Amino acid sequence: MSGFENGKNEERKFGETARKIGETPTEGQQDAPPAEAESRQDAAAAGQAPVQPEMNEDETTVYEPLKDAPKEAAQAEAPAAAAGITAEKGSESGGRNKLHGEAPGKKKWGAKKIVVIAVIIVAIVAVGITGYAMLGSNKALTGENLQQIIDNGTFYDGVSMAGVDLSGKTIDEAKPEVQQKEDEYLAGLALDYSVDGDTYTLKGEQLGASVDIDAALKKAMLYGREGTFAQRNAAIMEAKEKGVEIEMPVAYDKATILASLQANDEKINVPAQDATVEVTTTRDEDTLMTGSTITLKEEVVGKEVDDSALAETIYAQLSQNDFTPVAAETKVTQPKFTKADLEDQYALLGTYSTEYVKSDFNRRYNIWKMADVINGVKIEPGETWSINEEAGPRSYDRGWKAAPGIADGKYQDEPGGGICQTSSTLYNAVLRAEVEIVDRSHHSWPLTYVPGGLDATISTGAPDFKIKNNYDIPIYIIANCDGQNRNIEISIYGPKFEDGLTRDFTSKEVGYSDAGEQIIQDPTLPEGTRIVERGSHPRRVFDVYKHWYDENGKEVKVEKYSTETYQAFNSIVRVGTAPASTPEPVPETTPTPETTPAPAPETTPTPETTPAPGTPVEPAA
Q1: Are 455 and 427 within 8 A, CB to CB?
Q2: Which of 82, 283, 514, 607 has the most CB atoms in a 10 Å sphere around its CB?
């Protein structure tokens, strides 16, 4: 039974009580005239104050219980007193309240009148309390009442969810239909966020959206069943007349939102990029040319979205069912090195060139090929670089050509012969750039294209030439090989010297001694025959000096750098020991006398015959 109906029942009960009391007046009291009573009842029904009977100016209404009044009338005094009805004191001249009688000419109130007034007051209070209970208090379903509605209740007319009409259905009846709409509902969820004017959309799956169907249907079932009476009634009428769509309570996953934002980072975030050195190489195998140009690439200022903060904002907003687009804040990150920084830092530290004017084509080709291999090489700070590892094995099937190289103390053709001129040119550039040298060996004897003591030999496997970048920024190897003019120049591009000086190297021969000769007796060769299998190379010693020059070319410092010793190589000569053989004598022969031939007899020529007229003649060939 509703609160409104309860209120009506209470009113009826109060009315019946009032009538019952009014029907049996207390003994000893006078009833009010019928007209008066009816008038008061009509006024009470109309919500007005009852009309009081007229009294003289000097009359005082006195309520005086009679001695012989029934006990009920005496008990009725209490509510009347509670209602503010009291006996007034009379005047000094006889108008006072008499306990043993009544003053002449005075009227007294009847018990019926007093009880009716009390009942009306109580009824008014009761109606007010009941009205508040019905219209003003909130109704909250709990415990068994709530569970009973969830289990057996039906949805009010006009209530729908995800496009499914739930009117008159139980939760069990509606659930399969709503579940079919769940994926469609979630797919329709979307939230936009913008980064510097560009808009990106996160769909339901990217938001980690999920729906608790049971909780959603419970929410729909409680529609029109919670709140004040007026609120509940208004909700029910709105659903019936206009229809009400109950939104599904959606849960979102913060981790999924963050992962979705991070997946877009490649399209949104711009990492800060330092200005860089770019080496562009060129090559022409036909003319044996290789070269390079150095450019400084501009830096890039970074832009980055704080994904964690953005995910928090989106999650908090979705928790309030707010799908307003979100503007992401970006964080600017500055690069470490700018182009201006690189211009101040980098320079060509060391440069050296050599010539190979008299070399044949194969040797020139190998010099060019090795220059092309090392051109543009970048060595990071702390990195150790090997020329053998960079070039790989030298073999014919890898494109190297046969040219003289030193092996076993003599020159002999080998794939890659001549590449030591490239490695020696590089060595001199490295010395002038003050790059750390890890592994280097000079040749078996000094060579003509670099001063003594300033060469570097290499061979497949070993020996090798290794250097280490001992600076805090990358260094670059720049090679320019001119096959037409037959020269090669190699430079190291790296950080400028703080002292502003340039470096150079020279050498001075400080020791020399001839090599000996190794004789090998060869009985297969005639005695006195000499065949030189290997030429001799004397022992030679060079002191290497390092020089510092200012910007005007003036030497400001010099110091000894190293001493290079080339060991002697004895010549190897094969000498024949076989004695010379004596030739056998040739016997003399008697010459045969010449014979004179007999003269041939003369012959008489045959006369030509003239053909007869008309005979055909064969033409000459």
Answers
A1: yes
A2: 283
